[in-house]
Specification:
Helix 9 packs across helix 10. It is built from ten helices and ten strands. Strands 1-2-10-9 form a four-stranded mixed beta sheet, with helices on one face. The two termini are 22 Å apart. It is α+β, with helices and mostly antiparallel strands. The protein folds into two domains: 89 residues, no CATH class; 88 residues, no CATH class.
């Protein structure tokens, strides 16, 4: 574990190599899961505000679910999440060929909204859990991401490097720079300890 301020990072974030490979995984992180993408209360409010701009990008099934359930909902743990189509894919997904993509991010990329997508989606496969005295940041290994592990290994990209932009969004650039230096030092120390 590495601690920066009140945030504790698991070692996997510094040791595992990872880089999304959409042609191989088909965006299945937007399709499979126990519930929708976790949202903060602020993000739930933002989704309400941007709904008119995002709506045209979505598939009819997604629009119908959101119009019936709302732009966010509560899951079995009473956490705020994005709604799902048929208890499977996120209602905000769009399809590009056979790849699941984010309709919110598409609206953002075309300049229609200022909100890129929920932080939990942007950080995937990192998961953030807030406790009273600290924040835990952990890498979540899932079988749907095996191609990302292979690509990260081929291209020598670590989780914290691949997720630089969302980590900066989560913690700020100064803290990310500290995280980067800590990760480099952590790996250098590990290499030296092997000899």
């Amino acid at each position: 574990m590495i601690r920066i301020g009140d945030t504790i990072f698991s070692r996997d974030i510094f040791e595992r190599k990872f880089k999304c490979d959409l042609p191989e995984c088909l965006g299945n992180c937007c399709r499979y899961g126990d519930s929708g993408a976790p949202l903060s209360e602020e993000e739930a409010s933002i989704l309400d505000e941007i709904w008119p701009e995002v709506r045209p990008y979505l598939r009819p099934a997604g629009r119908e679910v959101i119009e019936n359930e709302g732009t966010s909902t509560r899951d079995f743990d009473n956490d705020i999440v994005t709604p799902l189509i048929g208890n499977e894919e996120c209602a905000y997904t769009i399809l590009e060929g056979n790849i699941f993509m984010c309709g919110i991010e598409r609206a953002w990329s075309e300049g229609k909204i200022a909100f890129r997508k929920p932080v939990s989606c942007h950080l995937f496969p990192i998961r953030v859990k807030r406790f009273k005295d600290f924040v835990a940041v952990n890498y979540q290994e899932l079988s749907i991401c095996h191609s990302a592990l292979a690509r990260g290994t081929r291209e020598n990209v670590y989780v914290y490097e691949f997720l630089k932009d969302p980590l900066i969004r989560l913690m700020g650039e100064e803290s990310y720079n500290e995280l980067y230096l800590s990760a480099e030092d952590f790996r250098r120390t590990r290499r030296q300890s092997r000899f």
